[in-house]
């Protein structure tokens, strides 16, 4: 099958040149392709049969029907094209998902013409066509969202293939389509796979929480950081020349769990990350504060609900991109959580912009 | 992607359109095909609907097979093993109907609809009228609507659904017409089974009563347009009447030369002769004839009459021509026979047009006045002579030899007939003139039909006269034959063409006279000259006229109306249905000044540009016109302000603009403030507070003058 692969690559290169990646693409005759479908070829075949009938019977009216069918092919090209043209397509969002789930990419279809667009479909190139999304109609001068699902198999930044926007309207004889690169990305968190959390002495779900919660006493020392409560400074311990230490209490109401790679008992890094993903999500959902230390970066407690969400997604984003080469352009499309991700990414981002 | 669409279940909404489209496409065929097919369609639809309502289930494969077998059996019972096109269409139709029952997916519906396109086309094989074409365009709209419903996600009311499809079809029609005019026509690529329809008009035999039966039909046999000598202009009614008076309108169809069992038919020898005479030989012969004619006679020849015949399908192979046809051209294969007749290679199963030219003979009542009109260098060969003088052999048991007639031939001077043919012919005609009656309802004749007619009944129609006349000629040893065809033709004053009807059917005789060749003699003229000079109905008694089925149409206004309708149908057939390569050439040279490819290309380009203009530019212009009356008034207001050299900025609302002008030109302040006020109220106040007329008046009152 090398020729197919070869032509595919050739076509990809052609696409990059003719429809470069953009935030929003206006569909027009420069980026719309038209080609008959199988139904269309069948239609032409039927027209040929009618023509043969007319010719063999020397019947001018039958010939007229055949010519009508041929002529309609030309007019249908125009109508199918009109259905897709003057749409503006842009990527809106793709909420992060866990590996193994389907990522849902939301796009915005903006009909800029004064006519209705009917039955527009969208799917990613070279993906399972069953995930095709349909928009029944887009009224004149209005927006319609279209959500395209894509299976997220691995953690990391999911960059889908080009988005195919297509239509068969009105008669299914022709396929009118385009391949767009709208810089869509979706952050894929590691799959949640439960793994033992080492810092907790006991095993089992119920006892874990008890030990965490049961500690009304002193738990451990922690180096002082600005903002820690003065009351908690362990003056005695500090006097031994270890610098300022702060007594950490595991309070009965809000016991603090520290998450880190070392705290997960799993054989491989991926499983450890999955374990972390499980626990972080677990605590987040239980609204139980936790801290995490990943790659030397520490997320401490979050104070408010909003902060806790930010905190959670920050941790997850870090888990998602952990040790992954940042080889995909992230044009800052990934919104809220990109601020918390590695500076390396930001550096890359800057570089990319520079190139652009 | 389309795969997922085509495996989708047909929506109920779309299915309704598919069924409706199928019904519309099948309707005309239901009238032609066996009557159980409509019942099958209803049955299939009921089943389909019951499946949708979850009342019935999809048919088991065995049921499907049984249904298919039943349909095949039904077609066999209706048609037998017949190689005509109806069983084929019936088969296609039955298949399309059965598909309805099991059509689950969109792709099934697409197949059903595509078969509909073919059925629309086949419907046109049976009728080629303008109405049929309009109906087929309507059916195509229905099919497109169904196809559209399959590929449209949302459900819209019927009215909204029709509109885009009608627009589509209206856009396609001009392009299809362009293709129709421009694309060349190919000859049939292979032969197809023809439509099984009964032969009309004559058969290739003639026995007493055949033609009188035909005379009662008022159906059109063919229509003829006449041209002037260089085939450029169509002759008008007066020109036709003077060049071809009614008594000259003899349209020869076929020649019958064998008399057996009281029936005239074509002899085998004529068939053989016909088969072995190639067109080249005939051409050579006619050229030779022409040269020798010119040399030998050296006198003014009767002019060539050029005409186009549009023949109604009669499912026979003979064509009709005036006298001996001189040239014959057609898009179908035709040839000229040695007897000077035109013939098509295949039975004429659809309306057919051919052009011919014939040289008129000016000999009618008495042949001797105009000798030498058909000079033939060659005499009849012995074989032909034997053929054209042959009489049935004596049959002793039945005595069917018409002995009395043979005796009459001797009595009228038959012994001398070969030497003095004209005298003998005139004697026979005079004999007819004495006591014979021309009637549409002759009495039945016995075994010796000629004797019975000549000596017992003495009442007959043209076939009796021609038959007995030829018999008398042969009895005297003169080669003679019966010719059947049409005599007459009525000129349609609306479009200047001649209509020949079945009721004009006629039979006459041709006699071989030495040095003159075949000479036409019409014995009917001796009995009923009105038949020849006027028409059949004039030659009949009042009682018999009722049998001719034309009563009501003779009434003036109705007759005029009928003429108009016939003219429209004639034009349609002549210019659309019969449009072929030669008419195409004529069209190109007439409208484009030639048939060079560049002219055709330029023509196509011009038409396409016009179409694009009407489809794209006109809507924009119309849109401008469709703006609301308020906006139009705003435009007039702006125009008026241009006199004061003030133009409206896009940021100005109508009222703001009026105030702006008022500030610049305080002289018109009052009118302008009024305009601003009305504009604002038109826009923002409840609609009943102001009227358009008020705005109109306000703007009218403002009459600025350039400073």
Written account of the structure:
Chain A has 356 residues and is α+β, with helices and mostly antiparallel strands. Chain A has helices at 2-18, 38-56, 60-84, 205-214, 235-242, 269-285, 305-320, 343-355, and strands at residues 24-26, 33-36, 87-93, 97-98, 102-111, 117-124, 133-138, 142-151, 156-158, 163-167, 174-180, 186-189, 218-223, 245-249, 257-260, 290-294, 297-299. In chain A, strand 10 and strand 11 form a beta hairpin. In chain A, helix 2 (38-56) packs antiparallel against helix 3 and helix 6 (269-285) packs antiparallel against helix 7. Residues 200-215 and 328-356 of chain A have low confidence and may be disordered. Chain B is α+β, with helices and mostly antiparallel strands and 707 residues long. In chain B, strand 18 (505-513) and strand 19 (517-521) form a beta hairpin. Chain B is elongated. Classes of the chains: A alpha+beta (356), B alpha+beta (707). Chains A and B meet through helix 2, helix 3, strand 6 and strand 7 of A and helix 1, helix 6, helix 7 and helix 8 of B.
Helix content of chain B: 40-55%
Number of domains of chain B: 3
Beta-strand segment tally of chain A = 17
Helix content of chain A: 25-40%
The helix-and-strand class of chain A reads: alpha+beta
How are the secondary structure elements laid out?
The complex is a heterodimer of chains A (356) and B (707).
Chain A: H1 2-18, E1 24-26, E2 33-36, H2 38-56, H3 60-84, E3 87-93, E4 97-98, E5 102-111, E6 117-124, E7 133-138, E8 142-151, E9 156-158, E10 163-167, E11 174-180, E12 186-189, H4 205-214, E13 218-223, H5 235-242, E14 245-249, E15 257-260, H6 269-285, E16 290-294, E17 297-299, H7 305-320, H8 343-355
Parallel strand pairs in A: 4-12, 15-16
Antiparallel strand pairs in A: 1-3, 2-11, 3-5, 5-8, 6-7, 6-10, 9-12, 10-11, 13-14, 16-17
Helix pairs in contact in A: 2-3, 6-7
Chain B: H1 2-6, H2 12-30, H3 36-52, H4 61-79, H5 85-102, H6 106-126, H7 130-150, H8 158-182, E1 205-206, H9 210-214, E2 220-227, H10 237-243, E3 250-256, E4 258-260, E5 263-265, H11 268-276, H12 279-297, E6 304-311, E7 318-319, E8 321-322, E9 325-330, E10 334-336, E11 342-344, E12 352-359, H13 382-389, H14 403-411, H15 421-435, E13 437-438, H16 449-457, E14 459-460, H17 462-475, E15 480-487, E16 490-492, E17 497-501, E18 505-513, E19 517-521, H18 524-527, H19 529-533, H20 536-539, H21 542-545, H22 556-577, H23 581-592, H24 597-625, H25 629-643, H26 654-664, H27 669-684, H28 692-701
Parallel strand pairs in B: 13-14
Antiparallel strand pairs in B: 1-5, 2-6, 2-17, 3-8, 3-15, 4-5, 6-12, 7-11, 9-12, 10-11, 15-18, 16-17, 18-19
Helix pairs in contact in B: 2-3, 2-6, 2-7, 3-5, 4-5, 5-6, 6-7, 7-8, 8-24, 14-17, 15-17, 25-28, 26-27, 27-28
